[in-house]
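so my prof wants the structure for this chain in the tokens format not the other one, which i didnt know existed until like an hour ago. anyway here's the sequence
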Amino acid sequence: MTGQPPGEPPDETAPETAPETPDAPPDRRRPGRLRRWVVRPFVWGLVLLFLLVVGLYELVQSRFARERVLALAVARTSEFLHRQVTIGSGVGRERNGIFFS
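here's what i got, hopefully its the right format
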């Protein structure tokens, strides 16, 4: 027997719980708006910036980039001096490693 009269509904009150102790950890909170909208994009921005710098460094060190810069330098110098300029071994007078024809 539960100690209640037969026609009454059962008692639905929760059993009494022990009070929380001060050393119990608090409920963990979800990441807030600051972390979601400021910190994460900042970190991803740093990662992308780092990858961009590494990619540019590898491009500058490549043979393709050196040949393109060399071709541009020869074209601009030839245009400025109004004469043919070749870099490397060539025919003509040499001044500081640059041959003028």
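also thought this was worth mentioning. The two ends are 117 Å apart (CA to CA).
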